[in-house]
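Need residues for this backbone.
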C-alpha cells in the first residue's frame, strides 16, 4: 500500500544502509520476506560501464532480506522520494514497490523499496562465483570502484550483525593478491 502523505519509511539493503543520502529521523533494523539481497544487476553507470560492467545489489525474488528501515518526516517526504528515484532509477532497472515491513520494535509500517526488474537487460540473474569476482573486480563507474561498493556493503552488514556469506566470499576473492 502506497501512502500519499505522512512520514515516509525507506527500506535499505545495500548502499542505502551505509550511505542513505537523505535526512532521516529514525532508523531500525527491518526484515523483508519474499526477496533476498543479490549481486544480480549489471552496473553500467555507478560501478561500471556498458563495455566493462560491474555488479550492484538488487532485491530479487525468494527468501528474506535483513536490512535497515529509515523514517523520513512528512515534510521531507517528496524531496526524499525525488532523490531516491534519481539515484535508484538511473537506468530503470529497479521497480519502486511499497510493502508493509515489520520493524524490530514490532511496528508494521509501509515502506518504499527498490526491487530488480527481471525483464530489464541489466538483470544478470544468478552468476557463477568466478563471474561474480571478475565483474566486481573489473567494474568502475561514476561512483567509483565496484569492489569498494561491495566491500563497504559487506563491512556495514557485519557491523549490523547481518551475515552474508556470498558477499564475504566475493570480497575475499576479489581482494586476494596473486600468490596469496
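Answer:
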Amino acid at each position: 500500500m502506497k501512502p500519499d502523505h505522512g512520514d515516509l519509511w525507506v527500506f535499505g539493503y545495500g548502499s542505502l544502509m551505509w550511505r542513505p543520502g537523505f535526512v532521516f529521523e529514525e532508523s531500525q533494523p527491518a526484515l523483508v520476506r519474499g526477496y533476498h539481497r543479490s549481486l544480480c544487476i549489471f552496473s553500467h553507470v555507478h560501478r561500471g560501464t556498458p563495455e566493462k560492467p560491474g555488479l550492484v545489489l538488487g532485491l530479487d525474488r525468494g527468501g528474506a532480506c535483513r536490512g535497515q528501515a529509515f523514517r523520513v518526516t512528512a515534510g521531507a517526504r517528496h524531496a526524499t522520494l525525488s532523490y531516491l528515484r534519481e539515484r535508484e532509477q538511473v537506468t530503470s532497472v529497479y521497480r519502486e514497490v511499497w510493502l508493509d515491513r515489520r520493524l524490530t520494535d514490532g511496528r508494521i509500517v509501509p515502506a518504499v523499496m527498490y526491487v530488480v526488474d527481471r525483464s530489464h537487460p541489466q538483470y544478470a540473474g544468478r552468476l557463477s562465483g568466478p563471474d561474480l569476482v571478475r565483474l566486481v573486480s573489473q567494474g568502475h563507474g561514476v561512483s567509483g570502484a565496484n569492489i569498494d561498493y561491495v566491500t563497504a556493503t559487506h563491512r556495514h552488514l557485519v557491523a549490523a550483525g547481518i551475515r552474508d556469506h556470498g558477499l564475504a566470499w566475493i570480497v575475499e576473492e576479489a581482494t586476494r593478491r596473486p600468490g596469496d
